[in-house]
Protein 1
Amino acid sequence: MIALENAGLRRGDRWIFRHVGFDLPEGEVLAILGRNGRGKTTLLRTLLGSLPLTEGARSVPPVVGYVPQSQNGGEEHRCLDIVTMGRAGRLGLFGLPGRADEAAALAALATVGAEHFAERLFGRLSGGERQIVLLARALATEAKVLVLDEPAASLDLANQDLLLGVLMRLREARSHTIVFTTHHPQHGLFLADRALMMHASDEVRYGRAAEVMTDAELARLYGVPFARHTAGPGRPDVVSPIFGAAIP
Ligand SMILES: Nc1ncnc2c1ncn2[C@@H]1O[C@H](COP(=O)(O)OP(=O)(O)OP(=O)(O)O)[C@@H](O)[C@H]1O
């Protein structure tokens, strides 16, 4: 459904990433992890088609729903209008959204459990609620692939829980193939079927999230040791960085 094969991207004389390959089955969720500047956003941009690969190949459907880290602007618009903007790619050059588009936007809000936001102003929502509206906008495109760039980056714990819960419902429905970047390993363990760990520009590990996100690999990725706790039957382990105990 979505794949990269021996993909590389060079800027000037520097490879941002190289030899990246994965093949994400339809309906699965992929978490991309790596330190600051490791190339996560650049990799997402190649998936979105806004940056060409220097080498290798990508296989991504033509329409992808994108959720940015946050959005500046639109604060004075109703959430329904923000979500209806997701229909723009389906309208003709000078086309205006019609009733069917508004109905699709309402359906997208309902999918994320946020139909009650429809008439509220986007600027009056909390950060987490805004992310959910932006997710609804991506769903309104009717894309089967969703790409999210650090969707929980600026959210407090309650809002992280809110957003992760909505994404988990999409995962359980297996209605979309989802790729997201994160600095929270726990989000990967909670939500993702697979993980792509960007250790270095030419070293990327890909596999089942529970198998590749071991304590040792997380410690190697971030340079910080991790502790692990079991969270009860049917729940993924909980990992926490042990600050102040950096690996020599
Ligand atoms: N337009 C550009 N020209 C040259 N280098 C760039 C450009 N944009 C980004 N880079 C470099 O590419 C590298 C990867 O950047 P990218 O934003 O993809 O990292 P990231 O893993 O998403 O980082 P973060 O976790 O901080 O968001 C960085 O070293 C960055 O400086």
Protein 2
Amino acid sequence: MTLLETRRATEWRTARVRARQLARPTGCESIPLADAAGRVLGAEVCSRTQVPGFDTAAMDGYAVGGPGPWVVVGRVLAGAASPGALAPGTAVEIATGAPVPSGTGAVVPYEESRVDGDLVDASPPRKTHVRRAGEDLRPGDVLATAGSDLSAPLLGLLAQGGADTVSVRRRPSVRLVVTGDEVVQLGLPGPGQVRDALGPLVLALVERAGAARPELVAVPDDHDRLREAIAGSDADVVVVTGSSSVGRADHLHAVLAELGASLHVDGVACRPGHPQVLAERPNGRWVAGLPGNPFAGLVAALTVLVPLLDGLLSRAPRPVFRLPVGGPVSAPGSVTRLVPVRLGDGAAVPVADAGPARLRAAADADGVAVLEPDWTPDQPAEILRW
Ligand SMILES: Nc1nc2c(c(=O)[nH]1)N[C@H]1C(S)=C(S)[C@@H](COP(=O)(O)OP(=O)(O)OC[C@H]3O[C@@H](n4cnc5c(N)ncnc54)[C@H](O)[C@@H]3O)O[C@H]1N2
Ligand code: MOO
């Protein structure tokens, strides 16, 4: 462990909790339900109606009144406003989703019906095949609580409950500042250069975490340019890649000090990704500093940046997911190790040859296994998926 780490490293789990807890949630906005996929609910949503809205057929066939056989007296299709009433010994042909006439004892599916002219008969029905008004939802039922992710099924449920718009958290705005004289944005790097891998990686990660599409600003290893890139942004979060360590060209700490930022996390006791920073500017906006080594940057983003965005979005805690780690991993040592893993059948299998500067293993993996200092191979490990 370097001098830098021993001086101020925060435990990995503490850093995540701190990032999430310190964030003050963004405001809420009302948007059409159709635009709300992937957003985070800002307020509880209750059903405005009962579902089903009326007693309805669950099968195509005959709605029958009293014991059979029944005389077929009509037909009711889905969308019919007033299905009428059935006298005992009568039936109507009915479609799934159509309202059943009052007096309906059951719906007999076509497959179970014997039809002879205008008479229909069947064995006594084992099920009514009628869905009763309000059996799924009642007006006022809580459909989702604030902080829920608007998943595909939840959006469908909210529509069933009559929602046209939903209150969601404003997407946090992010500026992504990619530092490095050697870092190029397009094409093949020349001598001494390297292609920017963190730009696309962080863009994907933060958008997936619910932020607005970040603005990417590339700056050289220059103190004033970095300062301007941070100070000149009013984004909720400025993410800086590179410049987080102690090299001559690493200006982030000096710039943050000049800007009067408070360092809530300055180095994390994890491998890779320890030289990471979470700072709060005097105006309440955030700076997340990620190491330039790409896999280390990814781990740091999972450590401070994603929890910070979760906090800004006031997202409900993500479910903790643990799996046994199948395969050779060495003991974690004194810091938390983040190991790329593929998720198999009930186990997480480490992907070989992960290094802080390499993305191959992470790209072949589904996420990382979190091996905390007290982890032993007989315990399941927490998994963070990309
Ligand atoms: N004396 C010490 N040196 C270093 C320490 C330390 O504790 N003491 N920590 C090492 C660790 S661990 C890491 S990680 C790096 C972090 O360095 P920085 O965040 O300051 O990043 P840079 O120095 O700018 O770059 C490191 C490395 O990554 C490449 N890089 C940078 N940006 C990108 C990008 N956008 N896409 C792809 N690759 C990128 C860069 O070319 C360097 O190779 O510090 C160690 N040193
Ligand atoms: O954070 Mo550095 O991880 O060891 O490359």
